[in-house]
Amino acid sequence: MKTVCKKDSCTGCMACRDICPRNAIEFKDSIKAYNAVINEDMCIGCGACYRVCQIDNPVNLNKPNMWYQGWAKENNLRENSSSGGVATAIEKGFILKCGEVCSCLFSEGKFIFRIAKTVDEVKKFSGSKYVKSNPSGCYKEVKSTLSKGKSVLFVGLPCQVAAVKKFVGEKLIANLYTIDLICHGSPDQKVLKTFLSQYDIDISMLDTISFRTKTAFQLKQNLKSVGIPGAIDKYSIAFLNSICYTENCYECQYARLERSSDVTLGDSWGTNLSNEEQKRGISLILCQTKKGQELLDLAELELREVDLDCAVQYNHQLIAPSKKPPQRDYFMKEIEKGIQFNKIVSKCYPKSCLKQLIKSCLVKAKIIGGGQIEYRITVCPKKMP
Fold first, then answer.
1. What is the pLDDT of residues 190-212, one digit of tens each?
2. Rounded distance between C-alpha atoms, residue 94 and residue 297, angstroms
């Protein structure tokens, strides 16, 4: 098997597939790893796939020169976002004043990238997506739009931002603006489908799916909770404990303070702001470039000071990739055997699962409310050495 990058290190950014003139790249996505495989019978040896690969040829990275925590001033943008609504506010400002926006949305059971030309279309991008997305096809659209002299804002994971920058090339990059989202790692969509199948849910039949509401982690389909209402579901437990990611995520070269984008967005975990503000959502904002400052100026944002050392401590992907847990190999083997998802996670994390079961019983008995299923960090640690 001849692969574009080292075996099992592929991020699934799909840039090599988009650039291949002979459609000679096929993706083999097992539940554990992605691989971009070259069909040698079709390959003409042009080397385009290697040149565009952000694993083989990483992009230049920049340290943040400004950092904030904050939220969208427009209340409905903040309320309808997983965090502080900063991404949506920037996207809206960009659409109104600059150009078009490319990001990820959920459609017909798939997490795909599309270009938005109106404010209404931008709304479809909101919400966290704790699963691998597929940018295939969007790189050509972005490059085509840029070649017409228009500006494009691309919002995606750090590896996807690096991929789009490699794809469009130096001649067109002046009008490309980028935002990367702090990434813990991402599971293959087969993992999500396996979880949903326990409840006889076919993802292709869903209109909506969400993974989190502010500090409350619970997967919902068509606005209904999946699993036990009032408790964190087993998919979220697996995700938060990093056992379900593909292999490349544990060696991510973009999980560091130096970033591939103009602006980096995440959650302001460890904030010193009030509990009320935390419940409404607070974003962490890192600005790396002059373009990044332009993006912030376009949006109507409430910005506050943040301790960068504290923010980094609570977003460890700004230091290093997620560590592979010892339970991960067991989890993957059992999933491949067809063992029920919830049983595997319960065996891997019995205390966490028991805690959530007790919580759900208390909610059912109306002893506690079920509105907040929180995963919140509130205490700021000492500064990094």
1. 999 999 999 999 999 999 999 98
2. 10
